[in-house]
Amino acid sequence: VSALVAETVQDPIYLQAAKQTADFIFAHLINGVNQVLDAIDSSSNSSCDPGPTLKPFNSGVVIEGLSVLYSITGNTTIQTLLNSIVTATISTTAWQGSNGIINFGGAGDLSLVQGLTTAYLRNATTPELRVDIGHYLAVQFNAVVDLATVNGSDVYGNTWLGPPTSVFAGSSQITALSAVLSGLSLGDSSEPPLPHPHHQIRPHLPTLTKPQKAPLSLALFSRV
Question: Which domain of life is it from (predicted)?
Answer without folding.
Answer: Eukaryota
